[in-house]
Structure formats: C-alpha cells, structure tokens
Write a structure and sequence with these properties.
Blueprint: E1 4-9, H1 13-24, E2 29-35, H2 38-44, E3 52-56, H3 64-68, E4 75-80, H4 86-91, E5 96-99, H5 104-124, E6 127-132, E7 135-140, E8 144-149, E9 157-161, E10 166-169, H6 174-180, E11 186-190, E12 193-196, E13 200-203, E14 207-211, E15 218-222, H7 225-236
Parallel strand pairs: 1-2, 1-3, 3-4, 4-5
Antiparallel strand pairs: 6-7, 8-9, 8-12, 9-10, 11-12, 13-14, 14-15
Domain Response regulatory: 5-115
Organism: Parapedobacter defluvii
Modified residues (4-aspartylphosphate): 56
Length: 237
C-alpha cells in the first residue's frame, strides 16, 4: 500500500514539532506539510495532496471543527487537550480523537484506522475522474489493464485499457494513482508500470506475464527488486 500522506495542524509549535517527530517513527506515514497557523493551511489546501489531517481543535482564527467541515473527502484525526470535544468530533465522522500529550502507540492505532478506512474506500470506489489529454475523463478501474510512465513526459501516465484503447493522465504520480485504485486489484511492479492483478498468468523473480483480453496476446513485464516484496504479498493473499 502507498504511504499515507498527512498534514499536521496545531497552533502550539512545540506540540507540532513533537507530533512530527512521532510521525517520523511510523512506517508508511509521510508528512506532507505542517502548519502552526490554521488560516495559512486553509489558504494552501488546494495545492496540497494528502489523505489525512491531524487537526488540533482549539486554535485562533479558525478552530479545528470549522476547518474540518471544509476538508471534504479527507480523513480527519482530531487532537486536543480538552476531552469535552469528543462527541462533536465524532459527529464530524473523524476517524479518531487523540488526547494530548501525544503517545506513539496511540498515534499508531489512529493511523491503522486511517489505513483501514482508505483501503475500504478504494475497494468500493470503482471510478474516478482524471485530467487527461482528452480533458476530464471518468476512469473505471475494472477497465484498466496497466499503467505506464508516458514516453514524452514522466509526469504523465499512459492508462491502457483492456480493449487496447489508451488515455494519457496528466501530471499525476503513481502514488496518487494507487490511492485511487482498489488496493488488492492493482500492483506496482517497477518504476514505470502498474498492472491489474487479475491479468497475471504467471511470474518469476524477475518477470510477470499478463493477459489483458480473453485469448489475447500475453505481455511480459519486469519486476524490480524494490517492488518484489509487495508483489509477492499481493499474490499470497
């Protein structure tokens, strides 16, 4: 599974630094940005790519509850030193509620809940919109055979459908794509390729052979050492 990308927001700078330090000790957690000013965070939301926000509640300018209502589609972990906010926090569908001072094991449990929620979302969301060379396109994950880095610009990704048609997704990373695709249905096998797992016919330590249409030609892709362990885990599930 790709890293969980998170944003941290807490107006108390020492608490924010401590939270950053704890996050750095957790595998699979990537802190995209930290803010000790909620208004600055609000002004920069549109330019940030993240899955979850660890959000303090009592802050000047705009409190965490107000801010959470503007984070549609993002997972929220609330944090506060004041227990009286717990009920309201869960009314906003927060995945968890942390009491200060932060504890590593408690933070780890909160991110485990985030991981489960994101996986559940991916398994039920079968379609999503992407910016492409054709404009906005609604992509159905079940129709995708594989995805490769575009030949002319590495920032773009070429999506190859099972019927052989193609579309160029503009300015998107593999990590971003994997967060949109159902977790157990797609796998990155090297720096340039994601494949649909149900197309796999056979594999070795170095190669995976896939068939994308019934009775169609079998294609072979290299498996990089960096992704071999994740690939094996997927195949053993």
């Amino acid at each position: 599974m790709p890293n969980i990308r998170c944003v941290l927001v807490d107006d108390e700078f020492p608490a924010l630094q401590y939270l950053q330090m704890l996050c750095s000790q957790l595998s699979g957690i990537e802190v995209v940005k930290s803010f000790n000013d909620p208004v600055k965070f609000l002004n920069k939301i549109d330019g940030l790519d993240f899955d979850v926000c660890v959000l303090d509640i009592r802050m000047p300018g705009i409190d965490g509850m107000q801010l959470a209502r503007r984070l549609q589609g993002k997972v929220i972990i609330f944090s506060t030193a004041h227990k009286e906010y717990a009920a309201e926090a869960f009314d906003l569908d927060a995945v968890d509620y942390l009491r200060k001072p932060y504890q590593l094991d408690r933070l780890e449990k909160a991110f485990a809940k985030v991981r489960d929620l994101l996986a559940a979302r991916r398994s039920t969301e079968n379609a999503f919109e992407l910016n492409t060379n054709r404009g906005k396109v609604r992509v159905k994950s079940k129709e995708i055979a594989f995805v490769e880095v575009a030949a002319n610009d590495r920032r773009d990704k070429e999506i190859v459908y099972r019927d052989g048609s193609r579309v160029l997704a503009k300015n998107i990373t593999f990590d971003q794509l994997l967060r949109l695709l159902p977790e157990k249905e797609f796998c990155r096998i090297n720096r340039k390729t994601i494949i649909a797992s149900d197309t796999i016919m056979s594999y070795t330590q170095q190669w995976v052979s896939c068939s994308f249409t019934e009775g169609g030609t079998i294609s072979r892709f290299p498996i990089s050492a960096q992704y071999r362990s994740d690939f094996k885990n997927l195949m053993s599930d």
